[in-house]
Amino acid sequence: QVQLVESGGGLVQAGGSLRLSCTASGNIFSIKAMAWYRQAPGKQRELVARITSGGSTIYADSVRGRFTISRDNAKKMVNLQMNSLKPEDTAVYYCNQESKWGQGTQVTVSS
């Protein structure tokens, strides 16, 4: 059974950077699309970025140009590099593969 474990969240000032990582178990990581979602207090969970098995990416309008999603199939890892962070990026960030979710990692951006 696939398990997803996120790391890399924390507290950062506006304008700063964080890098989130998600490590997956299982043998079929390389053929699956991976995604990052986030959920802020009182709001619905939303897609942040997605990367296909072939490396094609999509981003939410709110993060395009600031965030970069990447994957390392050999390490079964997907990363989210977040630059120029804003207070509105504050949320719990979740790694996703199809119906599987990680436990989430908190990102807090102070103004």
Can you describe this structure?
This protein is mostly beta strands and 111 residues long. It is 0% helix and 51% strand. The chain has strands at 4-7, 10-13, 18-24, 34-39, 46-51, 57-59, 67-72, 77-82, 91-97, 100-101, 105-110. The strands form two sheets. Strands 2, 4, 5, 6, 9, 10 and 11 form a seven-stranded mixed β-sheet that branches. A four-stranded antiparallel β-sheet has the order 1-3-8-7, with no helix packed on it. The mean pLDDT is 95.
Furnish the topology, listing elements before pairings:
Layout: E1 4-7, E2 10-13, E3 18-24, E4 34-39, E5 46-51, E6 57-59, E7 67-72, E8 77-82, E9 91-97, E10 100-101, E11 105-110
Parallel strand pairs: 2-11
Antiparallel strand pairs: 1-3, 3-8, 4-5, 4-9, 5-6, 7-8, 9-10, 9-11
Quick description:
The protein has 111 residues and is mostly beta strands.
Question: How many helices does DSSP assign?
Answer: 0
What proportion strand? over 45%
> What's the number of extended β-strand segments?
11
Rg: 13 Å
Question: How are helices and strands ordered from N to C?
Answer: EEEEEEEEEEE
From the spread of the alpha carbons, the general shape counts as globular
Stretches where pLDDT is under 50 for at least 5 consecutive residues are none
